[in-house]
Structures are given as C-alpha cells and as structure tokens.
Design brief:
The chain has three helices and three strands; from the N terminus they run ββααβα. The chain is an alpha+beta fold. It has one domain. The chain has a three-stranded antiparallel β-sheet with strand order 2-1-3, covered by helices on one side. The chain is globular and about 40 Å long. About 20% of the residues are buried.
Length: about 110
C-alpha cells in the first residue's frame, strides 16, 4: 500500500449562479504544486475580465463589475489563506487591462 505524501492544493470557486438548491462552491481541481493552484485561481479572474465589455471604462468600474458578477477562486485550507489574494490580483489585473484607475479620456 502506497501512502500519498504530496500536499494537494484544492482550488474551489464561489459562485452564486447555481440557484438556491445547489451549493455555491464548485471544485476547480487539485494540484500538487502551489504555483499550479495559483495559476488556476488567476485564470478564473482573467477569464472573467477578458470577456468583460467594460475594459474601456476603467479599472475601478471593472473591479466593481467583477465583485458583483465574478466567481471568486480560493485555495482551500486555513494554511493557504495567504497564498493567493484574489482582491490584490484583481486590482493589479484591472489596472493592467485598462490604463489604470482613470483612462486618459476620463480626464478633462
């Protein structure tokens, strides 16, 4: 009998799109490497932001759009709370996709 010793990082996504009779959590996968789990979390945020029609408006609006409608990824386990900060990554990615909090056309 072989004992599995590799630590698994379980990535789950919180989504309120599945109705009241279903759990809001869905399993995205198990990863043996932390970097793979972080990449999976980033892809959830990236996929939402790339499909968003609001990139032209600015980072602040895009952030609010994600917070209202996006699925929130996390790496399961109390020991993993600080391994990926969805909101920090969200702010960085929104500023990257737009031209920052205000686009030049917003400045009068």
């Amino acid at each position: 009998m072989q004992i599995e010793t590799a630590k698994k990082y379980v990535v789950e996504v919180y989504s309120d799109k599945f109705g009241l009779n279903n759990t809001p959590w869905r399993n995205l996968g198990e990863f043996s490497e932390l970097n793979d789990a972080i990449d999976a979390c980033k892809s959830v945020v990236d996929d939402f932001l790339i499909r968003s029609p609001f990139q032209e408006i600015g980072a602040e609006f895009l952030i609010n759009h994600f917070l209202n409608y996006g699925d929130v990824p996390c790496i399961n386990g109390i020991e993993n709370l600080n391994t990926f900060d969805t909101y920090e990554y969200l702010h960085m990615k929104c500023n990257e996709l737009t031209l920052g909090p205000l686009k030049s056309k917003d400045i009068t």
